[in-house]
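Input record (Table S2, row 240):
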Amino acid sequence: MARTALVTGGSRGIGAAISKALKADGYSVAATYAGNDEAAAKFTEETGIKTYKWNVADYDSSKAGIEQVEADLGPIEIVVANAGITRDAPFHKMTPDQWNAVIDTNLTGVFNTVHPVWPGMRERGFGRIVVISSINGQKGQFAQVNYAATKAGDLGIIKSLAQEGASKGITANAICPGYIATEMVMAVPEKVRESIIGMIPAGRLGEPEEIARCVSFLVSDDASFINGSTISANGGQFFV
Ligand code: CAA
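Output record (acetoacetyl-coenzyme A complex):
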Protein backbone atom coordinates (compact mmCIF):
# COMPACT_ATOMS: atom_id res chain seq x y z
CA MET A 1 0.00 0.00 0.00
CA ALA A 2 1.23 3.51 -0.80
CA ARG A 3 2.62 5.47 2.11
CA THR A 4 0.58 8.47 3.21
CA ALA A 5 2.19 11.91 3.17
CA LEU A 6 0.86 15.06 4.80
CA VAL A 7 1.96 18.42 3.41
CA THR A 8 0.90 21.48 5.39
CA GLY A 9 0.27 24.56 3.29
CA GLY A 10 0.28 22.05 0.47
CA SER A 11 -2.07 23.65 -2.04
CA ARG A 12 -0.05 26.76 -2.96
CA GLY A 13 3.52 27.86 -3.59
CA ILE A 14 6.34 25.53 -2.59
CA GLY A 15 3.84 23.28 -0.79
CA ALA A 16 1.84 22.67 -3.97
CA ALA A 17 4.99 21.62 -5.82
CA ILE A 18 5.84 19.25 -2.96
CA SER A 19 2.35 17.72 -2.92
CA LYS A 20 2.51 17.12 -6.67
CA ALA A 21 6.01 15.65 -6.54
CA LEU A 22 5.06 13.23 -3.76
CA LYS A 23 1.95 12.17 -5.66
CA ALA A 24 4.11 11.55 -8.73
CA ASP A 25 6.43 9.48 -6.51
CA GLY A 26 3.48 7.22 -5.68
CA TYR A 27 2.46 8.42 -2.20
CA SER A 28 -1.10 9.09 -1.06
CA VAL A 29 -0.96 12.81 -0.41
CA ALA A 30 -3.07 15.03 1.85
CA ALA A 31 -2.48 18.77 1.48
CA THR A 32 -3.65 21.20 4.12
CA TYR A 33 -4.59 24.82 3.66
CA ALA A 34 -5.62 27.57 6.05
CA GLY A 35 -8.15 29.78 4.32
CA ASN A 36 -8.13 30.00 0.54
CA ASP A 37 -11.00 27.62 -0.33
CA GLU A 38 -11.00 28.65 -3.97
CA ALA A 39 -7.28 27.91 -4.49
CA ALA A 40 -7.64 24.59 -2.67
CA ALA A 41 -10.65 23.50 -4.74
CA LYS A 42 -8.81 24.42 -7.95
CA PHE A 43 -5.74 22.54 -6.77
CA THR A 44 -7.76 19.38 -6.04
CA GLU A 45 -9.53 19.65 -9.38
CA GLU A 46 -6.26 19.97 -11.25
CA THR A 47 -4.20 17.40 -9.35
CA GLY A 48 -6.65 14.96 -7.74
CA ILE A 49 -4.87 15.62 -4.42
CA LYS A 50 -7.23 15.79 -1.46
CA THR A 51 -7.12 19.02 0.55
CA TYR A 52 -7.99 19.57 4.21
CA LYS A 53 -8.66 22.88 5.91
CA TRP A 54 -7.28 23.59 9.34
CA ASN A 55 -5.20 26.17 11.16
CA VAL A 56 -1.78 24.67 11.96
CA ALA A 57 -1.44 27.23 14.77
CA ASP A 58 -4.20 25.45 16.70
CA TYR A 59 -3.26 22.15 18.32
CA ASP A 60 -6.78 20.71 18.64
CA SER A 61 -7.66 21.52 15.01
CA SER A 62 -4.39 19.97 13.83
CA LYS A 63 -4.98 16.82 15.85
CA ALA A 64 -8.58 16.47 14.64
CA GLY A 65 -7.53 17.14 11.03
CA ILE A 66 -4.76 14.56 11.22
CA GLU A 67 -7.20 11.98 12.59
CA GLN A 68 -9.46 12.67 9.61
CA VAL A 69 -6.59 12.27 7.12
CA GLU A 70 -5.60 8.98 8.74
CA ALA A 71 -9.21 7.74 8.63
CA ASP A 72 -9.35 8.61 4.91
CA LEU A 73 -5.88 7.63 3.69
CA GLY A 74 -4.22 5.51 6.37
CA PRO A 75 -1.46 6.22 8.90
CA ILE A 76 0.66 9.25 8.09
CA GLU A 77 4.24 8.12 7.57
CA ILE A 78 5.60 11.26 5.95
CA VAL A 79 5.12 14.80 7.22
CA VAL A 80 6.24 17.88 5.36
CA ALA A 81 5.81 20.88 7.68
CA ASN A 82 5.71 23.61 5.08
CA ALA A 83 2.96 26.02 6.16
CA GLY A 84 4.34 29.46 6.83
CA ILE A 85 3.52 33.15 6.76
CA THR A 86 5.40 36.45 6.79
CA ARG A 87 4.55 39.65 8.64
CA ASP A 88 7.63 41.66 7.72
CA ALA A 89 8.47 44.93 9.46
CA PRO A 90 11.64 46.57 10.71
CA PHE A 91 11.99 45.62 14.38
CA HIS A 92 11.20 49.09 15.70
CA LYS A 93 7.86 48.89 13.89
CA MET A 94 7.07 45.20 14.51
CA THR A 95 3.96 44.75 16.64
CA PRO A 96 3.32 41.97 19.16
CA ASP A 97 0.53 40.77 16.82
CA GLN A 98 3.03 40.42 13.96
CA TRP A 99 5.45 38.56 16.22
CA ASN A 100 2.77 36.22 17.61
CA ALA A 101 1.12 35.42 14.27
CA VAL A 102 4.42 34.27 12.77
CA ILE A 103 5.55 32.33 15.85
CA ASP A 104 2.15 30.61 16.16
CA THR A 105 1.94 29.53 12.51
CA ASN A 106 5.55 28.89 11.57
CA LEU A 107 6.99 27.47 14.79
CA THR A 108 4.17 26.22 17.01
CA GLY A 109 2.59 24.98 13.77
CA VAL A 110 5.48 22.54 13.35
CA PHE A 111 4.94 21.18 16.86
CA ASN A 112 1.19 20.92 16.23
CA THR A 113 1.77 19.01 12.98
CA VAL A 114 4.44 16.58 14.11
CA HIS A 115 3.35 15.89 17.69
CA PRO A 116 0.08 14.08 16.83
CA VAL A 117 1.75 11.76 14.28
CA TRP A 118 4.86 11.04 16.33
CA PRO A 119 3.49 8.20 18.55
CA GLY A 120 2.24 6.29 15.47
CA MET A 121 5.59 6.66 13.73
CA ARG A 122 7.37 5.36 16.84
CA GLU A 123 5.03 2.37 17.09
CA ARG A 124 5.37 1.46 13.41
CA GLY A 125 9.14 2.01 13.38
CA PHE A 126 9.12 4.32 10.38
CA GLY A 127 8.71 8.01 9.76
CA ARG A 128 9.96 10.87 7.65
CA ILE A 129 9.74 14.47 8.86
CA VAL A 130 10.81 17.30 6.58
CA VAL A 131 10.53 20.88 7.81
CA ILE A 132 10.69 23.71 5.30
CA SER A 133 12.89 26.31 6.97
CA SER A 134 14.51 29.21 5.08
CA ILE A 135 17.78 30.86 4.14
CA ASN A 136 16.60 33.65 6.41
CA GLY A 137 16.67 31.31 9.41
CA GLN A 138 20.35 30.73 8.61
CA LYS A 139 21.46 34.30 7.91
CA GLY A 140 18.74 36.54 9.39
CA GLN A 141 16.94 39.16 7.32
CA PHE A 142 16.15 42.84 7.62
CA ALA A 143 12.48 43.19 8.67
CA GLN A 144 12.15 39.50 9.58
CA VAL A 145 13.08 39.16 13.26
CA ASN A 146 9.89 37.14 13.73
CA TYR A 147 10.22 34.96 10.61
CA ALA A 148 13.97 34.37 11.01
CA ALA A 149 13.42 33.31 14.64
CA THR A 150 10.92 30.65 13.54
CA LYS A 151 13.05 29.38 10.69
CA ALA A 152 16.12 29.12 12.93
CA GLY A 153 13.86 27.36 15.44
CA ASP A 154 12.97 24.77 12.80
CA LEU A 155 16.62 23.73 12.70
CA GLY A 156 16.64 23.16 16.47
CA ILE A 157 13.47 21.10 16.14
CA ILE A 158 14.80 18.73 13.48
CA LYS A 159 18.16 18.25 15.18
CA SER A 160 16.39 17.27 18.41
CA LEU A 161 13.77 15.08 16.70
CA ALA A 162 16.56 13.34 14.78
CA GLN A 163 18.14 12.22 18.03
CA GLU A 164 14.82 11.08 19.50
CA GLY A 165 13.55 9.32 16.39
CA ALA A 166 16.66 7.62 15.01
CA SER A 167 16.29 4.41 17.02
CA LYS A 168 12.65 4.15 15.86
CA GLY A 169 13.36 4.47 12.13
CA ILE A 170 12.28 8.11 12.00
CA THR A 171 14.33 10.79 10.29
CA ALA A 172 13.85 14.54 10.64
CA ASN A 173 15.52 16.92 8.24
CA ALA A 174 15.13 20.49 7.04
CA ILE A 175 15.36 22.27 3.75
CA CYS A 176 16.38 25.93 3.68
CA PRO A 177 15.07 27.37 0.43
CA GLY A 178 16.52 30.64 -0.73
CA TYR A 179 14.31 33.07 -2.61
CA ILE A 180 11.83 31.02 -4.64
CA ALA A 181 9.35 32.37 -7.21
CA THR A 182 6.20 32.14 -5.09
CA GLU A 183 3.48 34.61 -4.07
CA MET A 184 5.36 35.18 -0.79
CA VAL A 185 8.47 36.44 -2.55
CA MET A 186 6.49 38.26 -5.24
CA ALA A 187 4.84 40.23 -2.39
CA VAL A 188 8.22 41.80 -1.55
CA PRO A 189 8.40 45.31 -3.08
CA GLU A 190 9.79 45.01 -6.62
CA LYS A 191 12.83 47.20 -5.97
CA VAL A 192 13.79 45.13 -2.93
CA ARG A 193 13.20 41.89 -4.85
CA GLU A 194 15.42 43.03 -7.71
CA SER A 195 18.21 43.87 -5.26
CA ILE A 196 17.82 40.42 -3.66
CA ILE A 197 18.08 38.72 -7.07
CA GLY A 198 21.27 40.70 -7.58
CA MET A 199 22.69 38.93 -4.51
CA ILE A 200 21.93 35.42 -5.85
CA PRO A 201 24.96 34.07 -7.73
CA ALA A 202 22.62 31.94 -9.89
CA GLY A 203 21.11 35.23 -11.07
CA ARG A 204 17.52 34.10 -10.65
CA LEU A 205 14.86 33.06 -8.17
CA GLY A 206 14.50 29.34 -7.49
CA GLU A 207 11.55 27.30 -8.74
CA PRO A 208 9.21 25.53 -6.28
CA GLU A 209 9.98 22.23 -8.07
CA GLU A 210 13.64 22.62 -7.11
CA ILE A 211 12.61 22.41 -3.46
CA ALA A 212 10.11 19.61 -4.10
CA ARG A 213 12.86 17.43 -5.54
CA CYS A 214 14.85 17.80 -2.31
CA VAL A 215 11.78 16.62 -0.36
CA SER A 216 11.31 13.64 -2.67
CA PHE A 217 14.84 12.55 -1.87
CA LEU A 218 14.68 13.12 1.90
CA VAL A 219 11.49 11.07 2.34
CA SER A 220 12.73 8.19 0.18
CA ASP A 221 14.29 4.98 1.46
CA ASP A 222 17.54 6.16 -0.17
CA ALA A 223 17.83 8.87 2.50
CA SER A 224 17.46 6.58 5.52
CA PHE A 225 20.87 7.50 7.02
CA ILE A 226 20.36 11.26 6.59
CA ASN A 227 19.00 12.57 9.85
CA GLY A 228 19.11 16.01 11.49
CA SER A 229 20.53 17.53 8.31
CA THR A 230 19.77 20.70 6.44
CA ILE A 231 19.78 21.00 2.67
CA SER A 232 20.37 24.57 1.52
CA ALA A 233 18.83 25.27 -1.89
CA ASN A 234 19.52 28.92 -2.55
CA GLY A 235 21.41 29.35 -5.84
CA GLY A 236 24.67 29.98 -3.99
CA GLN A 237 23.36 32.96 -2.01
CA PHE A 238 24.52 31.76 1.41
CA PHE A 239 26.72 28.98 2.77
CA VAL A 240 26.53 27.70 6.33
N1 CAA B 1 18.64 46.12 4.30
C1 CAA B 1 18.97 47.31 4.84
N2 CAA B 1 18.09 48.34 4.93
C2 CAA B 1 16.85 48.15 4.41
C3 CAA B 1 16.46 46.92 3.84
C4 CAA B 1 17.42 45.90 3.78
N3 CAA B 1 17.12 44.71 3.25
N4 CAA B 1 15.16 47.03 3.46
C5 CAA B 1 14.77 48.28 3.78
N5 CAA B 1 15.78 48.96 4.35
C6 CAA B 1 15.78 50.33 4.86
C7 CAA B 1 15.06 51.29 3.96
O1 CAA B 1 15.92 51.72 2.92
C8 CAA B 1 14.70 52.42 4.94
O2 CAA B 1 15.83 53.19 5.17
P1 CAA B 1 15.69 54.77 5.45
O3 CAA B 1 14.73 54.90 6.62
O4 CAA B 1 17.08 55.21 5.75
O5 CAA B 1 15.13 55.35 4.19
C9 CAA B 1 14.46 51.66 6.24
O6 CAA B 1 15.02 50.36 6.03
C10 CAA B 1 12.98 51.48 6.60
O7 CAA B 1 12.23 51.45 5.42
P2 CAA B 1 10.66 51.76 5.48
O8 CAA B 1 10.29 52.77 6.48
O9 CAA B 1 10.24 51.97 4.05
O10 CAA B 1 10.14 50.37 6.02
P3 CAA B 1 8.68 49.86 6.04
O11 CAA B 1 8.14 49.95 7.41
O12 CAA B 1 7.85 50.46 4.95
O13 CAA B 1 8.93 48.31 5.71
C11 CAA B 1 9.80 46.47 4.44
C12 CAA B 1 9.34 47.93 4.42
C13 CAA B 1 8.75 45.60 5.14
C14 CAA B 1 11.12 46.36 5.15
C15 CAA B 1 9.91 46.11 2.95
O14 CAA B 1 11.01 46.81 2.42
C16 CAA B 1 10.12 44.64 2.71
O15 CAA B 1 9.16 43.88 2.65
N6 CAA B 1 11.36 44.19 2.59
C17 CAA B 1 11.67 42.81 2.25
C18 CAA B 1 11.93 41.97 3.45
C19 CAA B 1 12.27 40.59 2.96
O16 CAA B 1 13.26 40.38 2.28
N7 CAA B 1 11.42 39.62 3.28
C20 CAA B 1 11.59 38.30 2.78
C21 CAA B 1 10.26 37.82 2.25
S1 CAA B 1 10.40 36.31 1.30
C22 CAA B 1 10.52 35.12 2.45
O17 CAA B 1 10.46 35.33 3.61
C23 CAA B 1 10.70 33.74 1.91
C24 CAA B 1 11.97 33.15 2.34
O18 CAA B 1 11.99 32.28 3.23
C25 CAA B 1 13.22 33.53 1.66
